[in-house]
Amino acid sequence: MKRLFVFVPAILLVLFLLNSFVLKEKEAGEKTTGTKSGLVNIVFKSTDGGQTWQDISEGLPENLQREGVWSHSLFANDRGLYLLAGNGVYHSEPNSTTSFWTKEIFPGKQREIAPGKNGILAYNFRGQFLQKINGTSDWSPMYTNFQEQAVRIDKTIDWMYKNYKEREVRSVFETAGGTVFIGSNNCLFRSTNSGKTWKQMHVGDGSMKLVESNGVLLSTSKDGILRSTDNGQNWDGVISEGGVGIAVERIDRGFAAIVYNTITQTNSIHISLDSGKTWNAIGEELQPSWSSLLMKKIGLVKSSSDILSIKQMGKYLICGRSDGIFRSSDMGKTWKQLLLPSVENYGFNLSVSGNVIYVIPNKGC
Prior knowledge:
The chain is an alpha+beta fold. It is about 15% helix and about 40% strand. A hairpin with a 5-residue loop joins strand 9 (about 130-135) and strand 10.
């Protein structure tokens, strides 16, 4: 009888400890996943200048957690964030307080999207375009005669022409006035009549990324940063450090740009507050240390702390580096690193919609 009295409390104690352990494991699992579906670390959102972050990944396809999001498959504007994945275009409104995405079935096989004057443009490297006008649900073919005219205008015999008899499409940009630019494999095409006719601009290269502010156009190029004040008919170089232009962005009263310096072998930031006429280098403290550059050069690390992106959100400049995100409240004189959830990545893609910033970890895709 005495043994029974001793044995029963022992069993109850073991059951209590096991139950406590299971509850703790369950709580830990809930903290790790962060969402009901277990989908995390795809898109983060901040509405307070990057001080706090909300994981809004729930509702997106689960394969994105493994594969990542390609930079040309998303963009943000005043309507929020748009992301193309699988057979759908996902949209998150900037004022949404929850992790909520609306999905529209996408009818084509295009895998890149860009904002247009009146809606969303979707395209692929073969120059097959679709457009969805704001407020509608239908996708319509666009620029259907581009390839025919482009091949006739540009006689270059390259891999794309040999295999498809087409010109490769790498980017598309539409100005506020409706002029359309298509970045091809070795030049820029321009149309002022909604894509009915195209002209070849003998400038830049296929990696050109364009941005517009108050009628002034800026573009990246293999020779740095180019500027146009006549709607893209003529271009002048404004920043050149021997290397390619990495990024151009609009900021208050002007532009921000990132270029590769062939001497220091690093990316540097420049800003202009007079519509791109004059430029100042900023962000010296964001440059990688000499030791990290040396380790990269001798192959001990894959990459140093390269500057990859620059955006403005309200009064802040936000800079994405391969090892984190930094914020400046004095136009780049001083910088503070922002705290982000720990994720495995090779840098961050930044998108801004008003006073909302979205961060997408770059998984190397």
